[in-house]
Design brief:
The protein is mainly alpha-helical. It has one domain. 80% of the residues lie in helices and 0% in strands. Helix 3 packs across helix 5. The radius of gyration is 18 Å and the shape is elongated.
Length: 90
Amino acid sequence: MGRTVPAFRPALEHEIESWKDFKRALRPEDQKTFDKLMNFARIHADAGSLSARPMLSEILFMSFAIEQEKKIKILEKKIEELEEKIKGKG
């Protein structure tokens, strides 16, 4: 029997491609950010392929949220370290 659901990675690439007009309307610096976000979705493609989500955009947005949360945690840690250094000098 044939597959009724397309393979995930090609489907993900198709979803990303469907955003091309949106990307084209962005400023050049925002286009770079857009590409970075789409790469986050590619990084999490294995997890997405195991998800039973009917809308690929949900997987895109969850991938973005995960990567942004990781970045926030790194920045929070750096702030804490800087605050500790400042307290130590006072």
